[in-house]
Structure prediction request, 248 residues.
Amino acid sequence: MAQQIFVANWKMQLSFDQSCSFIQYNLESLEQLALNKTIVLCPSFPALHTIAMLCEQSPIAIGAQTVSRHPFGPYTGEVSAQSLSEAGCTYCIIGHSDLRQYNHESNINIEHKLKELIKNNIIPIICIGEPQEHYEQQKTYQILEEQLFGNLEIIKQHEENMSLFIIAYEPVWAIGSNNTPPTNILADIFKWIDQECSKRTKVHHLLIYGGSVNQNNAKELLAIEHVNGLLIGRASTEIESFRAIISA
Ligand code: PGA
Prediction:
């Protein structure tokens, strides 16, 4: 069985100082947990390099929350995959629904970002998930197809240069809401994602669930077949809940 992976998406919840303090106070206890689980911390851009330095001697990995679709150039406010890699990132989240929602990020844009990550040997964590209205209209699979298949096609084209990709299924309506989908629905969705990934590329994949993960539901979510780990927002910014989730 693949080692479980826990991705902490700190979003803009922790400031630079708070992110550094989190590591200074908690590195040792996280290192213990990272002996047999993969832990990826995704702070905001300014804290990336400092956190990467603080974790340098540890098994804890660092990820970014997004990346530019361009390799370099006059793109104010953007950060290239090359810079992320040089700053110590080995993972990067793309397609998060916050960006799809607030920045109108399109599937095409996310596919360009994926190519940049592949070029720079950064493991992509590709977020997919349907908004509430589509869930209610039972259009989940249609939305997931649109979000997933283009990326899998790109991965297939770059098989020789990739060892791993991660798909995070995060129903938009579950994020930050205290609601998670029923386990049987999740089991079907993860089975389908796993089948599609295996069918469309031979690159190894891991599947993770995100959306209102907490210490009370982590064990049940991790028990679902094909769920290899969790993407955790709010609950990853408090060490007690984060530790409890990883130990679930
Ligand atoms: P949440 O966020 O755990 O706070 O719901 C998850 C995410 O948006 O990645």
